[in-house]
Structures are given as C-alpha cells and as structure tokens.
Design goal:
With 80 residues, the chain is mainly α. The protein is built from five helices and no strands.
C-alpha cells in the first residue's frame, strides 16, 4: 500500500492504493465466518472454538514462515 501511495499523484490514486490492504485485512474474519457456517449444527461450541483456534495458529505460522521462506529462496529483490 505504501509503495502505491507514494507514487500517487491525485486523491483518487490514494483511495485506489487502499483497496489491496483493505481486501487482505478481512481474510481471517471471512475464514472464521465460513468455519462457523460450515460447522454450525454438526459441532459443539467447544469443537468450533478448537477449530477456529487451529485456524488462527495456521495463519500465525504462515505469517512467520512465509517471509522466512521468501528470504531463503530469493537472495535479491530482482530474483523475486
């Protein structure tokens, strides 16, 4: 978002630069809602909480492993 915003030359370009971050920030909330719908009647509240906790753990691990893996695979910015 900051790269796009730093190159913006108008107010509308600044608004457009906010779209990617707004879309990506809501992914976890959408996943939690989908889990709730998918396991609505078939699971107890404790089972749903455990599954959402595992989802949160997977997202947290992805945030840690993703940049690490990217730094191992690509040594320079041009390779990416």
């Amino acid at each position: 978002e900051l790269i796009i915003a730093s190159q913006a030359t108008s107010i509308s370009a600044l608004w457009i630069s906010m779209i990617p971050s707004a879309l990506f920030q809501q992914n976890f909330n959408v996943l939690k809602a989908l889990f709730g719908e998918y396991h609505g009647a078939s699971a107890s509240a404790a089972e749903r909480a455990g599954r959402v906790g595992k989802l949160g753990m997977a997202v947290g691990l992805a945030f840690m492993v993703g940049p690490l893996l990217g730094s191992v695979l690509f040594k320079t910015y041009e390779q990416a």
